[in-house]
């Protein structure tokens, strides 16, 4: 376990260092007089603030770490292809000196927040090989990640919507909370969940994000 933690910490630090270096190079293309020392200080404070305040911008950081090398590989391949001049100029404009990765990361992060505010509901009919006395209405929910984009309003709407279905069984499939969920939202959610009604019980299993707080 200690080895895994050390390895994970090393990977995270190397990834953040890579991202910082890549952002500085992109910024230097736009603002050549940018000081590396000042950038390092600002970047370090920015990362610490995101982690400390458990900001949803952390997703944009992860996306950037993935997108920067991916887009640079695409750029390298396009260079080798010898594109026509006009198409080559268009690709350089789109690339934005590397800022394309940041723009895409922010778009993906915003899209994720929008999805969190518009939970998807899907109905399934499952047939059992066993003979049951009657049909059972089961509500299964997972990955709410309460405390970020999911606030009190969405929690209350979830409770009301679930009760309106008159479920026999309610199953929480994990990641209802995560490492960024504060005590206030945990208490609010549990208080709201106490209003859930089912004829055969409510069942809860932990997800990987909830276990990060162990």
Chain-wise SSE layout:
Blueprint: H1 2-30, H2 36-52, H3 58-81, H4 85-95, H5 99-116, E1 138-141, H6 152-164, E2 169-172, H7 183-193, E3 202-204, H8 208-211
Parallel strand pairs: 1-2, 2-3
How would you concisely characterize the structure shown here?
This protein has eight helices and three strands; from the N terminus they run αααααβαβαβα. The chain has 214 residues and is mostly helical.
Question: Overview of this structure, please?
Answer:
- With 214 residues, this protein is mainly α.
- Helices cover 59% and strands 5% of the residues.
- It has eight helices and three strands.
- The chain has helices at 2-30, 36-52, 58-81, 85-95, 99-116, 152-164, 183-193, 208-211; strands at 138-141, 169-172, 202-204.
- The protein has a three-stranded parallel β-sheet, with no helix packed on it.
- Helix 6 (152-164) runs parallel beside helix 7 (183-193).
- The longest helix has 29 residues, at 2-30.
- It is elongated.
- The two termini are 14 Å apart.
What is the element string, with H for helices and E for strands? HHHHHEHEHEH
Arrangement of strands in the largest sheet: 1-2-3
| Total number of beta strands | 3
List low-confidence stretches. none
Describe the main β-sheet briefly: 3 strands, parallel
First CA to last CA: what distance? 14 Å
Structural class: mainly alpha
Query: Helix amount, in percent?
Result: 55-70%
Proportion in β-strands: 5-15%
Mean pLDDT: 81
Secondary structure tally, helices: 8
Q: Looking at the structure, what is the overall shape?
A: elongated
Radius of gyration: 23 Å
